[in-house]
């Protein structure tokens, strides 16, 4: 934001920055009046090869969305071609706190930004609850497996004894008395 003192009357203000579409607005000021102009120039994609660079954002969570310089949020697709210079990025994903970073995109080069999103308290609680539930089911499954293994071993030993007795009976042998 910048303030400029001008004489009363009609003024035409133009804004130009490499990589962006030029914008102009008119303002009429009376003696001693204050006026505000807001500019939000759009990126000029046709000039990015000459006046731009690349922003490569690596985020800890997939399905994140990014907004650059307060633009509308869009799915994060790397790389992002932007005009060279300073930019403010905002990364968002459901269940995580938004992250904002100031970055500088160098002319004809790549700026790399790494963002680790932090979970919201609700997401943390859901994660811990899920981990505890999985742990409980793991113990139940392990206990069931051990019980089935023990039962199988006992049944195998009992059946082995019956098999030996059946073989002796089939061959006409008797067990020696003890």
Q: Helicity level, as a percent range?
A: 25-40%
Strand order of the largest sheet: 5-4-7-8
CATH superfamily of the largest domain: Carboxypeptidase-like, regulatory domain
**What is the quaternary state of this protein?**
single chain
**How many strands, which pairing sense, and closed or not: the largest β-sheet?**
4 strands, antiparallel
As residue ranges, the low-confidence spans are none
Number of strand elements: 9
**Backbone CA Rg:** 37 Å
**N- and C-termini, Cα separation:** 107 Å
> What is the global morphology?
rod-shaped
What is the count of structural domains? 3
Mean pLDDT: 87
Total helix count?
Answer: 2
**Secondary-structure element pattern, one letter each:** EEHEEEEEEEH
Question: Class of the largest domain, according to the CATH hierarchy?
Answer: Mainly Beta
Q: Tell me the strand percentage band.
A: 25-35%
CATH architecture of the largest domain: Sandwich
Indicate the structural class: alpha+beta
Find the CATH topology of the largest domain: Immunoglobulin-like
Q: What key attributes describe this structure?
A:
178 residues, alpha+beta, Immunoglobulin-like, 3 domains, four-stranded antiparallel beta sheet, three-stranded mixed beta sheet, 9 strands, rod-shaped
